Amino acid sequence: MILIVVKFTIRPEHSEDWLSRVSEFTEATRAEPGNLFFEWSRSVDVPHQFVLVEGFASAEAGKQHVESQHFKTAMAWMPEVIATTPEIINAEIPDTGWNTMAELTPAR
After folding, report:
1. If we measure between CA atoms, which residue out of 94, 10, 100, 104 comes closest to residue 52?
2. Among 72, 82, 66, which Cα is nearest to 2's?
3. In the CATH scheme, what is the code of domain 2-35+43-49+56-88?
4. Are 50 and 43 spatial neighbours (Cβ–Cβ below 8 Å)?
5. Is 96:1 a contact under the CB 8 Å cutoff?
6. How many Å apart are CA 65 and CA 104, to the nearest integer?
7. What is the pLDDT of residues 10-61, one digit of tens each?
8. Domain residue ranges in the chain
9. Percentages (nearest 5) of helix, strand, coil residues in the chain
10. How far apart are CA 5 and CA 16, in angstroms?
């Protein structure tokens, strides 16, 4: 699996509508055959920062994502909205998706 985590810091005037701006990109990516997950969160520590966690079934699936039209479209408009160059972690790991955490379960 390819695991990607990206931190996007958005210009303050655009942070409230960031999730609606990326909704088309998000839905198109989630529809890709090799996409395992594509999830946005908002930082509780850094104002105007969003964190994207992505999983792709293989390096080939990740390559197809970057070559897709919706990826290219997003990369074309995002420079006008981001405040800093995004930070990224991109790693190939042996897992195939989410597992359950062994150290913690809900109380009964």
Report:
1. 10
2. 66
3. 3.30.70.100
4. yes
5. yes
6. 34
7. 999 999 999 999 999 999 999 999 999 999 999 999 999 999 999 999 999 9
8. 2-35+43-49+56-88
9. 35, 30, 35
10. 21
